[in-house]
Write a structure and sequence with these properties.
Distance between the termini: 14 Å
Helix content: 25-40%
Strand order of the largest sheet: 1-2-3
Radius of gyration: 13 Å
Number of helices: 3
Oligomer: single chain
Order of helices and strands: EHEHEH
Structural class: alpha/beta
Length: 98
């Protein structure tokens, strides 16, 4: 099963950690989490948050690094390459492995 967190919708870093801990706990209890996606919010016209700021590359790298540190090594960590084309190397260095 795949799960994930969405970055840049008004959540705090603490809430991200809490979400990742909850995912880790579920994976340990049930063994069903194969990978998680750390996805960044992208503003688009016509959505309620169309004027919201998008997370920058370093905020994404921070979230990926948290995921890699919190989750067990068997869980893959992804970040959508189509939403982060200029920061692939940074995200690899932060811990994506899937």
């Amino acid at each position: 099963m795949t799960s994930g967190i969405l970055i840049g919708i008004g959540e705090t870093r603490r809430e991200r950690v809490e979400s990742l801990l909850a995912i880790r706990d579920l994976a340990r209890a049930h063994g069903h989490i194969q990978e998680i996606i750390v996805q960044n919010f992208r503003a688009r016209p016509g959505i309620p948050m169309e004027s919201a700021l998008e997370p920058d590359d370093f905020e994404m790298a921070h979230a990926v690094a948290l995921a890699r540190l919190i989750l067990d090594p068997a869980i893959g960590v992804q970040a959508p390459p189509n939403l982060n084309p200029a920061s692939t190397r940074l995200l690899i260095d932060a811990g994506i492995n899937d």
